[in-house]
């Protein structure tokens, strides 16, 4: 599971304006990073431009999932992740980032701002923190613990069933041994009576 990009944009009348972005491109080769970053920036802006106000959506692009949230006040955020990353955690991240951004950056700066002029430094921290959804999101952590408990319970049930099967074998063997001992007793009794 991996997050690659986290962007904050302003949805204008005709195009989206990038306000701030953070990238984790460490999984790409050095020579690919600039083109991948350009692709992610372009894709984020395009998705915001084509999304309506007050909407949340997930868009699949190649092996990536792009999650977008466009608020009614035109402030928008996009996170680009791999297919395995949980969507619910992405939308939680987008909510947090947009709430915090709107409190720290004046609304007047949104339409004309740029990454160089906007003073908002926590995107890199969020991108790093949310790389592991279990640590960043309490619900994911609880879900992972439940899944582990279910696996342990499943393994315990399997071992109980195996033990039960072994007990059944022992019961059958003891019944067979009991029948053989009765037959032996009868044979011995008959032999004793004959003598």
TrEMBL record:
Signal peptide residues on this chain, from the entry's feature table: none
Any Pfam family the entry gives: Synaptobrevin
Matches recorded under Gene3D superfamilies: 1.20.5.110, Longin domain
Classification via InterPro entries: Longin-like_dom_sf, Longin_dom, R-SNARE_YKT6, V_SNARE_CC
UniProt xrefs under CDD domains: Longin, R-SNARE_YKT6
Major place of residence: membrane
Keywords: Coiled coil, Lipoprotein, Membrane, Methylation, Palmitate, Prenylation, Protein transport, Transport
DNA-binding found in the keyword field: no
Domain Longin: 8-127
Membrane topology: Lipid-anchor
Compartments in which it is found: Cytoplasmic vesicle membrane; Golgi apparatus membrane
Domain called V-SNARE coiled-coil homology: residue spans: 138-195
Entry annotated with the keyword Membrane: yes
Protein task: Vesicular soluble NSF attachment protein receptor (v-SNARE) mediating vesicle docking and fusion to a specific acceptor cellular compartment. Functions in endoplasmic reticulum to Golgi transport; as part of a SNARE complex composed of GOSR1, GOSR2 and STX5. Functions in early/recycling endosome to TGN transport; as part of a SNARE complex composed of BET1L, GOSR1 and STX5. Has a S-palmitoyl transferase activity.
Family in the record: Belongs to the synaptobrevin family.
PANTHER family: SYNAPTOBREVIN HOMOLOG YKT6
The protein's name in its UniProt record: YKT6 protein
Organism: Polyodon spathula
Organismal lineage: Eukaryota, Metazoa, Chordata, Craniata, Vertebrata
């Amino acid at each position: 599971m991996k997050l690659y990009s986290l962007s904050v944009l302003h949805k204008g009348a005709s195009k989206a304006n990038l306000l701030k972005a953070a990238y984790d491109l460490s999984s790409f080769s050095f020579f690919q990073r600039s083109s991948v970053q350009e692709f992610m920036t372009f894709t984020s802006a395009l998705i915001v431009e084509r999304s309506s106000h007050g909407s949340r959506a997930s868009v699949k692009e190649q092996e990536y999932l792009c999650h977008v949230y466009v608020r009614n006040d035109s402030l928008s955020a996009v996170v680009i992740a791999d297919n395995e990353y949980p969507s619910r955690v992405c939308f939680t991240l987008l909510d947090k980032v947009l709430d915090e951004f709107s409190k720290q950056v004046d609304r007047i700066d949104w339409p004309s701002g740029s990454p160089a002029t906007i003073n908002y430094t926590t995107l890199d921290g969020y991108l790093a923190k949310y790389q592991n959804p279990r640590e960043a999101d309490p619900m994911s952590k609880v879900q992972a613990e439940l899944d582990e408990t279910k696996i342990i319970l499943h393994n315990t049930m399997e071992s109980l069933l195996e033990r039960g099967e072994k007990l059944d074998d022992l019961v059958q063997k003891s019944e067979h041994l009991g029948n053989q001992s009765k037959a032996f007793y009868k044979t011995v009794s008959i032999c004793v009576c004959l003598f």
